[in-house]
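To: structure subgroup
Subject: Chain for Friday's discussion

All,

I'm putting the inputs and outputs inline so they're searchable in the archive.
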Amino acid sequence: GDILAWVAKSNDALAKAHISVKTDVEGHNYYSGHIKLNFTLSREENDWFDLYGIVEFEGFKIPFIRFKNNILRNMREYSLPDGRIAILPDEWFEKYRPIMAFAQAEGDAMRLKKYHAPLAEEALIDGGHSVDIKFKDFYRADKGLTFDAPEGLNALLRPYQHNGYSWMRTLSEFNVGGCLADDMGLGKTVQVIALLQNIYGNGNGNHVVVSQPVDEAAADVSKSQLSLFEGEIVQPMAIEEKVRKRPTLIVMPPSLIYNWENELHKFAPNIKVFKYVSAFRSKLIKPLYTSQVILTTYGVVRNDLDILGKIDFEYVVLDESQLIKNPDSQSYKAVKQLNSRHKLTLTGTPVENSLIDLWSQLSFTNPGLLGGYEMFRREFVLPIEKRNDEMARKRLKSLINPFILRRTKEQVAKDLPPLTERVFYTEMTERQAELYEREKSHYRNVILQNIEKEGVEKSKMVIFQGLMKLRLIANHPQLTNLDKLDDKEIIEEHTHAGSGKFNEVIRLLETLKKENHKVLIFSQFVKHLNLFKEWFEHHKIPYSYLIGNTTNRKEVITEFEENADTKFFLISLKAGGVGLNLTAADYVFMLDPWWNPAVEAQAINRAHRIGQTKNVIAYKFICKNTIEEKILALQQRKWALAEDFISNNNPLSSLSTQEIADLFA
């Protein structure tokens, strides 16, 4: 084969030298003439383009698409119409394999998605061919055009956040989707909110006609229903006739609903937000059509696809999009059926286990970009994961690079302040909420009766007991004697173990572990730390552990600071409040808030110290609708009171009876 290929290339030189070549070999007649390949761009639409390739043999012209099977299967022999066997040029198999992998036959042309313009351009220009494909301008834009921050956004975007916003605007301009894959804590949410503010907050964006009418039953419900957003009576109307901006749907795990709602209210207060999550949501169809941003969960999308699938959205945004990494999952199949003009995914870990994770997410944002599932496995997963094929790796990177924006914390360090503090709200599980409400009612009655009889001063002990019990339940019911789950159930079934906070902290720690960060985890309660200790041990995750009775403090600290595999350090307030200098960590988790701001700052400063070269991000976990949220609000209103309140000398002296009652309301 190699000899015949050389003969075909050297045909003219051999003829001049009067050298004739015998092409009959073992009963087969081989073609030894010229092989010439030419391409033209025969048609181009918004989402695809057709390349017409023609291969010229002496006496024959054959469309290039007919060689697809040969190129993908590395078959160099091709039978010509006259029975001779042509040996296809070696370079075809390297240069044109990427095009053939994605090309679909359209008559005698090769139809390619617009995403594959760089593959076509690279192969064809290298071969001396010139093909002008409009969409290649998107690739030349690199990581985006530049857009001014939207008016009315209540946030000053850091430079990398502004770049992220401009990148998403660029995707929109070229009508493609993308994955924002910044490290945890870098503000993926606020970058998306800036995009939403541009669409809904200042009159920009496209106006369209909503194509689906409201369900009649829902219209009946709405006849006398107060608008959730405008405080006015909603009159029944033919909503499909109303010209307006399409809504955006943001899909997320249930635990993130409140955090999204809170950040939207803080950064873009004029955007109309609707939470489509309640048990009675089937009677609230109309706000799906009259709102601007709809927050919902993967579970709701799966269950309500008959409703959500009828709506034309401006954007569908998937938060924690690694949840659709399995293309066989119901979540993946459901979100694929949503209709929207634009699609975005948000994740700190776009690839957790395999490149298949990437395929499922990008096939949502950009269908066809990575081809079909089997083709992707054959062309990329097996060569890269099994054979470490550098060419396949390079080809995949060039394909996906424009559609994924990933910044690590280290890469954007110059844009970050030395310390960033965030409040992360968690929800109670159903069982946890029942226990909490029961204990709250009990202590409220006992405390108010006690105050009435004895006064506030003599009721301090029972008030303190009530506050402590509610704080423990907010962390995890297992920390009290009210919850009878055994340790094995806690460890193995943490998603059902009775604590929304525990589940969220574990989820975030798993993300940070994949992102290769180190985390200090503080709690006032040793038994709270022990729940995480047991979980780490069960899952064979290395950790360090420091509490009041730890005797080998120096060894424990050295292990965390110097061992790259030890990502997590569990520390009690009593043991870790002073005398620690832990500059290896760049994230701090405050599992249960300490109401004295000075104590909290002291704990955070274990990582944010002189000698720290990393930027530190601190998360304060607050359980929604519990004592934690109420005392946080109290702390923010009355700093002096907060310090007095937590003081062991006189913790309750500044609280009125009404303020105490409010804590247990």
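Points worth raising on Friday:
The CA atoms of residues 101 and 281 lie 45 Å apart.
The first strand starts at residue 24 and ends at 25.

D.
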